[in-house]
C-alpha cells in the first residue's frame, strides 16, 4: 500500500534532480549560487514528501514551516508546480 501511495505522489511531485534546471546545459561550471539553489530545492522537495507521508499522522510542524518559509523566500509556489 505504501509503495502504491509513493508512486502516486511521485506523479505529482518531480524528483529533486528534475527540479534543477539549466545546470547541465551551461557551458561554464556551476557556481555557488547554483549549488545553493539546488540545495534549497532539494530541501523543499524533502519537506513536501515528509509532510505528505502515507502514515495517518499529522504533518510535522518543521516540515510545514520549511515549505511556508520556502514559498515566502521564492515569492510564490513555483517550487511545487515545476
Structural class comes to: mainly alpha
Specify the number of helices: 4
* Rg (C-alpha, Å): 14 Å
The dominant shape is elongated
Q: What value does the average pLDDT take?
A: 75
What share of the residues lie within helices? 55-70%
Are there runs of 5+ residues with pLDDT below 50, and where?
Answer: none
Question: Could you provide a short overview of the structure?
Answer:
The protein has helices at residues 2-12, 16-19, 32-51, 61-74. By secondary structure, it is mainly α.
What would the keywords be for this entry?
elongated; 82 residues
Element layout with pairings:
Elements: H1 2-12, H2 16-19, H3 32-51, H4 61-74
Helix pairs in contact: 3-4
General description of the model:
With 82 residues, the protein is mainly α. It has a domain at 34-82. The protein is 60% helix and 0% strand. It is built from four helices and no strands. It has helices spanning 2-12, 16-19, 32-51, 61-74. Helix 3 (32-51) crosses helix 4. 7% of the residues are buried. The model has no long low-confidence stretch (mean pLDDT 75).
